Amino acid sequence: MTKPMRSKRDNLPASIIASIRNRKKRDGAGPQPHDPAEGMLVASYNVHKCVGVDGRFDPERTSHVIREIGADVMALQEADTRFGERRGLLDLHWLERETGLTPVPVSGVSRAHGWHGNVVLFREGLVRDVHQVRLPGLEPRGCLITEIEFNSGATLRVIAAHLGLLHRSRHQQTRTILDILGSRSEQPTVLLGDLNEWRLGDRSSLNVLTHVFGGTPSAVPSFPSRLPVLALDRIMSNRPGLIDRVHVHDSALARIASDHLPIKAVVRSKRPASASAQA
Fold first, then answer.
1. DSSP3 helix / strand / coil % (the chain, rounded to 5)
2. In angstroms, how far is the first alpha carbon of the chain from the final one?
3. Is-above-0.70 flag for pTM?
4. By CB distance 3.0 to 4.6 Å, which of 39, 42, 148, 245 could disulfide with 266?
5. What is the CATH T-level fold of the domain 39-269, as seen in this structure?
6. CB of 146 within 8 A of CB of 104?
7. What is the pairing mode between strands 155-162 and 189-194?
């Protein structure tokens, strides 16, 4: 595979400088509402155990940010307590009632929402498969791999991950994900989550993913939420043109509800061949 060309600005200092220069623009109109005609909206959000940058534990505030985003598929990280019998921190019944989002079911947990803090929410579809993965490393990390058939007829494989803080662990974890994908049939796939990689360019632990997901994913700063300079959260796909450009959901509420801003992208809808022929 040809190594993707990198912009001269594809480095951490340039990203930090750009974020600082753009901070005055953040107080504008806020995020634009999603147009369903553009495609399906996918999002990722590290909810930081529902503790905001003000130090306040407020699951209701976190839930309102999720509703504000209006995603069709959403991956959450840190949605459960970390140790012992993991316990879910959100009111999933309220979320389903207010947003239409239902959680992908996981097994082997009693009070937790997801798997190692990872939750996948979706609307208007059927879960065809769920694979819960314990990721290697010093920290308790995991990912969810699920295949969802939506009412529109489209099928999407979703990989929701929260990678470790150590570079070596992230390298092992990305290889584990690729090994699992290599044993499965090829289909449209989106990988999203808090990948905890702040390095850009050749030093990034995400470079191994280029074998399946093409070029290194675009780095959109999402952390810390009050002045985002690091692109810890990512969305990428295994097919060119499957997802639109990644954006942060930079609302006033999101800036305080967690230390991460949510990120989102549109999965492009493809018209059936018969419809294209009649156009």
1. 30, 25, 45
2. 36
3. yes
4. 39
5. Deoxyribonuclease I; Chain A (3.60.10)
6. yes
7. parallel
